[in-house]
Amino acid sequence: GGVKTNCDGETSIPNLYAVGEVACNGVHGANRLASNSLLEGLVFGKRIGRHILSRETKEKVNMLAEKEAKFIVLNHLPTKEEIQKCMMKYVGIVRTEQSLSYAKRWLSKYGVRNMILQHDVLTNEEITLINMLTVCELIVVSALQREESIGGHYRSDYPDRNIGKKEIVRVKRKRQLV
Question: Could you tell me which residue ranges the Fumarate reductase/succinate dehydrogenase flavoprotein-like C-terminal domain spans (predicted)?
Fold first, then answer.
């Protein structure tokens, strides 16, 4: 599963890329080994970076003022250890709707999902924490939506693989899958 991408990490949505755990590029099956996904993230991450840099983009992103951005970020962010502890305890190896819902509530109180920030006014640690919170929230939402156990995703409240509930979404643009 995952977001269908081409070899440059492009999805069917313009300017949206996917890499690593979220991407489905046909390289691995449902039970991809952890060490392979790390290598895949490095290889395809580099490819995506090169692809983006080779394109000219004229779109501008609305940014918050420097003061506002700094205030929002410094309002309160958890530590890396707090994020890791939450994810391991509630989103770890064995998952349930209850544990995933708790993690979703815990993550949502930091409100990073709707932030648009100027990276030049943030520290590397702040950027890392914001990125961690964003990825964790996406993992939790995806795990809540998947009501079956498959590959490395095990829901004790849905222990079986639900063959009948398989849904594949493909988008064609100019007769080509994207």
Answer: 81-162
Query: Could you give the 3-state DSSP secondary structure of residue 173?
Result: strand
Alpha-carbon dihedral angle through residues 124, 76, 139, 157, given to the nearest 10 degrees: 150
Q: In angstroms, rounded to a whole number, what is the distance separating the alpha carbons of residues 12 and 4?
A: 8
Task: Characterize 63-93 residue by residue with b for buried, 16 or more Cβ atoms within 10 angstroms of its Cβ, and e for exposed.
Answer: ebeeeebbebbeeebbeeeebeebbeebbee
Which position has the higher pLDDT, 108 or 150? 108
pLDDT tens digits, one per residue of 126-176: 888 888 998 999 999 999 998 888 877 788 898 887 665 566 666 777 766
Residue 76: which domain range? 61-145
Contact 15, 48 (CB under 8 A): no
Q: Are residues 22 and 50 in the same domain?
A: yes
How confident is the model over 66-80, as a mean pLDDT?
A: 64
Contacts by 22-28, CB closer than 8 A, 24 or more apart: 22/138
Q: Which helix (H) or strand (E) holds 74?
A: helix 66-75
CATH code of the domain covering residue 93: 1.20.58.100
Closest CA to 36 of 44, 80, 91, 79: 44
Q: Indicate whether 152 belongs to any domain.
A: no
